[in-house]
Design a protein that fits this description.
This protein is α/β, with parallel strands linked by helices. It is 43% helix and 16% strand.
């Protein structure tokens, strides 16, 4: 009798890890509808509510990230890591998966380490152009490593690498609104060019402070309009500044955009951080983009992500430290240059890998077959 397919998917912490994980799970279910999928995340992190919302069960580990500055706090982190490894071992023993998938984030370390030690084949998905510490350690035992950028053999064994790209939220590819309808939904004018500013779900301090300081410039740029997602943390401060500046009819401000499909449809130019997941979305949707990499990430990987596009003429790069001075002038200059917008769209489209989730799901199923349990 054929065994029911069971897969563990582990990782999370940010949307950049969670959305690909859910996309991979959905792709496995499409290929193998009776598959049982269990997520393993980190207690108290975003995945603990996002994954159940997507219809999957998740168990949390008491794992936490290492403190790079306050090293003395790492004793407690090490205790949590040991407890997480024991809990991951129990989860694997009880669930009996045929394969484990790691998407990065705190939980994937202990889960995939224990899976490898227990003889379960593992696959890791590295979203960034600069591999994270956890994935570099897990690569030794991993059977397959799915990547989104060229040149990853400097981090991983070349014979394990598979270029798949990053899976994105599937609903982004199926817009029901054209550009005009999308712009009208934000109470803006379809005849004007539109800049979409994304600070992520929590918000990007530098981008928000730059726009806040430039409200007068925005107000005077009457032939351009702006959709500004501030993130929940900054929304009230931004609204106070907007109210003090007086009426700005070419500006729409919100803390969070739930319908990103419509927001992307409305945008002629996007300003964003350089997270790997966001970049994959821009590639698939052929969006002209200005990237302002966050300096507060491990190994400065967002700058490396941005430069991978900039070197191919597929994005514009503004350093975080220079944003307050340069970001708005560069954005207004770019939005006015139709030829530049076209060039950016065409170049970023060449980097799109549209079937990432399905490619990774097929590799997962191959590992099960190779183990003789398919």
């Amino acid at each position: 009798m054929k065994k029911r397919l069971k897969v563990i998917i582990s990782g999370g912490g940010t949307g950049g890890h969670i959305f690909p994980a859910i996309s991979i799970a959905n792709a496995i279910k499409e290929l193998h509808p009776d598959a049982k999928i269990l997520f393993v995340g980190a207690e108290g992190r975003m995945e603990m509510h996002r994954v159940p919302e997507a219809g999957y069960k998740i168990i949390g580990l008491p794992v936490a990230g290492f403190h790079r500055k306050h090293w003395w706090k790492n004793f407690a982190v090490l205790i949590k890591l040991v407890r997480s490894q024991w809990k991951a071992r129990r989860i694997i023993k009880n669930f009996h998966p045929q394969v484990a998938v790691g998407v990065g984030g705190y939980a994937s370390g202990p889960t995939l380490k224990m899976a490898g030690m227990m003889g379960i084949p593992t696959l890791i998905q590295e979203q960034n152009s600069y591999a994270g510490v956890t994935n570099k350690l897990l690569a030794k035992k991993a059977k397959k490593i799915c990547v989104a950028y060229d040149g990853m053999e400097k981090f991983f064994p070349a014979d394990k690498i598979l270029m798949t790209g990053n899976p994105v939220r599937q609903n982004l590819l199926h817009s029901t609104r054209n550009r005009e309808e999308a712009i009208q939904s934000f109470r803006l004018n379809p005849e004007k060019k539109t800049i979409l500013i994304l600070g992520g779900s929590l918000g990007a301090r530098t981008i928000n402070n730059t726009l806040k300081a430039g409200l007068q410039t925005i107000k005077e740029a009457t032939d351009v309009q702006f959709i500004w997602q501030t993130g929940k943390m900054y929304y009230q401060r931004v609204m106070n500044a907007v109210d003090a500046a007086g009426e700005i009819p070419n500006l729409y401000v919100t803390d969070f955009i739930k319908d990103m499909t419509t927001a992307y449809s409305a945008a002629d130019l996007v300003i964003s951080r350089a997270g790997a997941g966001s970049i994959s979305e821009f590639c698939l949707l052929n969006k002209a983009v200005i990237l302002v990499p966050s300096p507060n990430v491990a190994e400065d990987h967002q700058t490396k992500n941005a430069l991978a596009l900039v070197n191919k003429g597929a994005a514009i790069y503004v350093k975080d430290i220079e944003a307050e001075m340069k970001l708005l002038p560069v954005a207004l200059e770019t939005i006015a240059d139709t030829a530049k917008l076209k060039e950016l769209r065409e170049n970023i489209a060449k980097l799109a890998l549209p079937d990432s989730a399905t490619m990774i799901a097929k590799e997962v199923l191959k590992l099960v077959k190779e183990k003789g349990e398919g």
